[in-house]
Amino acid sequence: MNLKPLPIGVDNFEKLITRDYYYIDKTLLIKDLLDNKADVNLFTRPRRFGKTLNMSMLQYYFEKREENNAYLFENLNIMKAGEEYISHMGQYPVINLSLKSAKQPNFELAFKCMKEEITNEFRRHEYILKSDKLNNEKEQYLRIVKGDDEDGLYITSLKFLSQCLEKYHNKKVIILIDEYDVPLENAFFEDFYDKMIAFIRSLFESALKTNSSLEFSVITGCLRISRESIFTGLNNLNIVSILNDRYTEHFGFTDGEVKKILKDYKLEEKYDVIKEWYNGYIFGSTNVYNPWSVVKYVYDLLPNINAFPTSYWANTSSNSIVKSLIEKADSVTKKEIELLIEGKTIEKRVHEDITYDEVYDSMENLWNFMFFTGYFKKVGERMDEEDNHYITLKIPNKEVKYIFKNKILKWFHDKVKVKDLSKLYTAIFNKDVETFQKELNVMLRQTISFNDAYENFYHGFTLGVLANMHDFLVKSNREAGDGRSDIFIKSLSIFEPCVILELKVCDKPKDIFKKCDEALAQIDAKNYEEELKEEGYENIIKYGISFYRKDCVIKVK
Predict the structure, then answer these.
(1) pTM score > 0.70 for this model?
(2) Where in this chain does the record put each AAA-ATPase-like domain (predicted)?
(3) How many C-beta atoms surround the C-beta of residue 333 within 10 A?
(4) Which tens digits make up the pLDDT trace of 433-454?
């Protein structure tokens, strides 16, 4: 049996079906939208959870075209849902707008990109100009088609286009807006937020609030922006966030869908690994997998059944928000991050209507932002006496934990780069154990540790501290003698001292001195200095270092 190709990065529904890519059927989203009958639907989900593909699917289902699109939905779930839903296929003019291209360094470029998106949608519907029904609208329509520079034209452009389409088709219009919050997030980081939010507010108000030509609208993004900042006065707005119990199975993969993928590709043995790495999201009360990462890992497994899982989701964004959390963390927040990485939970007050310009106003806002954009899952919730909503947060899976660990180590290494560590380095070569231990403990207490990694964390931490020893060669885990020493510090001259460091980690505080002695003894027992002596080094300093949480003990020989 020939396996269907996996749709890596394919977010056009027609392409996915006609080229016979593997598809997890999400067409019952159509049924739910028709059943719930909301005028404006805002879906917020983390990035790479299938939002754009679903929007494309909605366009191909509802849009009135010369060619019949029914073949695209053959044997899919919506075709089994009943005539009351099938009767809506191909019946509506559709405006489909993506705002992701507005990620630009200044407002002028971002606005230009959005104007181009709007212009392209006008061009896509240019066929309506052949009709005598639009004689009064043709001049304004053509100005937008030609990319007129008058900015005011574009503020009401979606409303104008929907009025033209209704006049031509004698049918109200469906408006799809994908990644609505990309221009806002970008504008905040690039410092033109006020200008961007003013334009988006005006665009949405005319298209969604005062538009009698609107049948219904679907908007997608990662974050709900407060009603006051964009959706002012939009009383017909139905917000579906990850806390909502509606539409939960339509974005991301359910457990049953993941099992089906693995069965179809004969990879059932990888179920536990995939669950550990990519499961754990909870939308409403439904357990959901990251679809992007599942598909990417299955793709990597096909030529190599032993391929290791990795954090595919980390590569789809800068994860700058994690960096911001770490950089702004006080001692309490650092402790909370450590608890999360250890697999424990923390509780935070939740509010869904933050704006991008408020994200950094408080740590609470930052936690909320990270929850709604996919870095945490909800494992519990409660309401207090004052009606404040609290949720219990946990890191959802190994993939997200990997992002945290990498960002923490990078943050630490960046911090070390600008710190004067000459006192610590001098102490190492002078066998000044007291100063070495004191300085290393100061560094330990400033960083965020992840104790589930034990020796890996402390090994990376120590290497980070030594990273600025530019006149020396710092080597990690080199084969030496009968085993592997943890870290070598080699002088470029054989007449200068060399250093061997052996690290141990304790489970109990009482073992910290004993483990330090063991580390020192291991250097001799396993003959780690043999290689250095063969190279001509005679002055070899040996350090045993033992760690327990935020403390270390050092001994020298």
Answers:
(1) yes
(2) 7-231
(3) 17
(4) 999 999 999 999 888 777 665 6
